[in-house]
Design a protein that fits this description.
single chain; 256 residues; alpha+beta; 7 helices; 4 strands; 51% helix; globular
């Protein structure tokens, strides 16, 4: 049993395939800098052209930072909505959030989610998302912590996953689950570096501590987690055989 889901293990076995901010200066600070530059220009004759160039460059930089901050917030809201949809009521909408709903791993995880809902899991709360942009401006690494809710206990069970989010050709955000295309070594290296950044490591450690503290306080939880995992595995294997061996399942649902 470990905090997070089984995707990290899958990624390490297939490292060449899909695994799945710093503070942005506010625009007002950019305007303040522009005001200072203009004041300096007024002191030095013939300095207007130089200062105008600096002003333009600062404005462009502020605009880019503002766009990056807006995208980051959109990613956080998108991933939060996806996590909230992981519920008995929202499971039919999950395909709208991913890049390839027909992906084998996505379909397998769907089955896992359906099995868990049958066993009393009702969803997640206390969702916290940390989104880190990648250098291409089209992908984000999202570290997502949340508490699993179940009818069996009156408290949530902490867990954490890491998702890879992209902006598609239509400008829509999608969670990357498609394992059919290979990613470059440079891309995967950047993903790993972001995952090892201080903020995400601290996020993971905080969740692990909360999870371990909960197990120490409620030893009966260990038995429930183990029995639930076994029941989910049996249900998924049964459904796969019932469908002629086809892998048809859900995504990133395992909190154990």
């Amino acid at each position: 049993m470990s905090v997070g889901d089984g995707k990290s293990a899958h990624a390490s076995r297939n490292s060449r395939r899909l695994p799945r901010v710093p503070e942005i200066l506010p625009f007002t600070e950019g305007l303040l800098i522009l005001g200072i530059l203009l004041a300096v220009c007024g002191i030095f004759p013939d300095g207007r052209i130089i200062c105008e160039a600096k002003e333009t460059g600062t404005a462009v930089m502020a605009q880019k930072r503002g766009t990056a901050a807006a995208d980051e917030q959109e990613v956080i809201e998108f991933v939060t909505a996806y996590r909230k949809a992981l519920s008995p009521e929202g499971i039919d909408t999950l395909a709208d959030y991913v890049d390839n709903p027909d992906d084998v791993d996505f379909q397998r995880d769907l089955l896992r989610n359906q099995a868990m809902f049958k066993l009393g899991v009702t969803g997640w709360e206390n969702i916290r998302v940390i989104a880190k942009p990648m250098s291409d401006g089209k992908h984000w690494v999202a570290s997502v912590s949340s508490d699993l809710l179940t009818d069996n206990f009156n408290f949530g069970i902490p867990g954490l996953i890491v998702l890879l989010v992209e902006k598609d050709v239509n400008g829509d955000f999608k969670i990357m689950v498609d394992n059919s295309s290979e990613l470059s070594d440079a891309f995967l290296k950047e993903v790993r570096e972001i995952c090892l950044s201080d903020e995400i490591v601290e996020h993971s450690n905080e969740t692990a501590v909360a999870y371990n503290d909960l197990l120490a306080e409620h030893p009966e939880l260990v038995e429930w987690l183990e029995s639930t995992q076994m029941a989910v595995d049996e249900e998924v294997n049964f459904k796969k055989q019932d469908r002629g061996g086809a892998s048809v399942l859900l995504y990133f649902l395992n909190c154990f």
